[in-house]
Design brief:
heterodimer; A: alpha/beta; 8 helices; 10 strands; B: four-stranded antiparallel sheet; 40% helix; globular
Amino acid sequence: MIEAIVARIKQGHRTMRFPKEPVPLPERFRGYPVVKGSACPPDCRACVDACPTGAVTLEPALSVDMGKCLFCPSCSRACPHGAIEFSKDWRLAANRREDLVVTEGDERRLAQALEKKMLSLFGRSLKFRSVVAGSCNACDADTNVLSTIGWDLGRFGIQFVASPRHADGLWVTGPVTEHMREALLLTYEAIPAPKLVVANGACAINGGPFIGSPEAHDGVGDLLPVDLYIPGCPPHPVTILDGLLRLLDKVK
Amino acid sequence: MTNDFYRLYNGSAIQRCNIPSLDQDEFLQKVLDAVDSGWRVCSYFGVPAGRELELYALLAPKAGGQLGIASTKVSGGRLPSLTPFCPQLHLFEREIAEQYGVVFENHPWGKPVRFQKALRLVEESEASLPALPGVMDFYQVQGDEIHEVAVGPVHAGIIEPGHFRFQCYGEKVLHLEIALGYQHRGLEEMLIGGPHRVTLNQMETVAGDTTVGHTVAYAMVVEALAAVAVPARAHALRGVAMELERLANHTGDLGAISGDVGFLPTASFCGRIRGDFLNMTAELCGSRFSRGLIVPGGVGFDCTPLQADALRNRVAAARRDLSNATELMWHTPSALGRLEGTGRVSEQTALDLGLVGPAARACGVNRDVRRDHPFGIYSLTQIPVETLKTGDVFARAMVRWLEAEKSLDYLDEQLKQLPAGNVEVEVGTLACNHMAIALTEGWRGEVCHVALTDERGRFSRYKIVDPSFHNWSGLAMALRNEQISDFPLCNKSFNLSYCGFDL
Ligand code: SF4
Ligand code: SF4
């Protein structure tokens, strides 16, 4: 007992103060892409040719689709003109699929808060049931992290629960393998309405590295209505938390 | 006796025509003989050749550091199963049967592995296997007071899907059968014709928690096929990434095991310390899961002297926290009481099933690719291999801690003396009609990649064996005669990959 108390003192208090204070991010962290199509000389398509998932397009203007992006970062390495660079901005989540496409001069379209009625239902207690549907597990690991003492997700009233009957929303990771499709849809059905769907990670949004696989569905978008898209491969825990807090109107 | 296998070293490539092609009976006999004399099966897979199927066996002798490979052609779509004599082949044979519609006669357990569509049918057999995952006959026990428990595919936590079928007598588990396949993404199929632009990213996500283990193996295969030498500095940084990955996962597991016996201090401390290791990885490459770090030809990011020093300090701090957190558990009799004697796997069972990694070492099986088939930096400096004898949850936890200690030493040593020079070399085209092999010691155990190229230097077959493929049956054995309530604990102590198995 004494030993446990001494250890407790040694290990200290570690719950971070986010969102009041920022989370320290590593120097090489890759967040929101800074896209400068105006820097591109005509006929250059180095970034498009380098991108593994087809996230970069030139028509009508240079843009990066964060829904497909793995933040790998082959495109910025391939570009000699600095037309695509990744900033340290962790805020990536959006409500609409098209809001994930980044083009020069576009306004930021971050995730918006739920409408009033939903907010009064979920604002102080939001429970998710997670379904892993072909994920490599990294997305899940960094979701699980949120429940550790450092992040302490519970202080925002958000929790992951064991039964869909206790849940307010479905949390999807993975490209949705054909073998998980039915289990995913049944779990969704078992959640009482009104309910939310979160697509966490490139796989769940658009197939991720498994985009185009004959054994998977390129994400959950064609199967269920998605309320929150969280880009990344995997999304950093702070990206996930930021998305959730925006949904609940706890950060602006 | 085993001279019919072509001998080669880890991370090398040979011309396909040099792989001995034996007559079917001879091949099967040689494989059996080799296993009888202590060789181990690293990989066993099929490759379509016209209307026929070739089988390749990659085996590891007990000592000497080499590997042996041989092949045969299956005639008539049927061949005798070796499983009754060599249990470590049971899943490999089931996999080949499922992928190519061949029949292994007298296989005692001929069931689907991942419920995947056949990659290609060799003969027109009735191999239209059920495509619905989990739909098959499970092993059943009958009698008074016998009951069956079915769990999954969707489990309680945020965890990958699988289906477990327990045959119980009261609380006691007589048998556990594990049905996987839910995570099947069709990876090996997508690799054919590669390397494609997305191949490296797919290798990073074979199992997301083993990004380094798998990408280093992939890089080694490509480098062997392109005949390029990786700079020493890149090798050292790969080693650093490899050990950081091991530390993060071992720490996470120690915490999870502690949590599962209800001992929360260690659980909550380790949950955070695991994050410290992930964040150190992110210092190297911007990603907590080493994405973008390992590339064929070297590493994608260099480490500045300043970063190396900072990392060493962080490693030292994490060591203090981790020893403090785990010692608590080792000093708490009530926690140890739950770990000791639970979920035992005997050394013989481990050998028979071909277990790898900490799960094997906890049963006294002394195998570790870093020492037995050294690659990269491990050819120069070795990490001591830790084994325990008892094969229980305690041993699997303790082996993790002992390994973590060694990894911490290693990191400190490597970061002090990173070799000078560049970190990446250009990789040209791949050799045509070659085969390359690579083994690495991922944190779960042996990762094995084999690539075969066609006449254009593209992959005509790429076979991956994740350590979980060897180890899932170990978990099933660990549960025998245990209380069903001990399943989560046993499961956690193995912590196997679903997607790495299902690919
Ligand atoms: S960082 Fe994103 S957009 Fe750029 S190459 Fe990688 S996946 Fe494509
Ligand atoms: S998005 Fe990336 S990290 Fe997440 S499950 Fe898919 S491959 Fe893994």
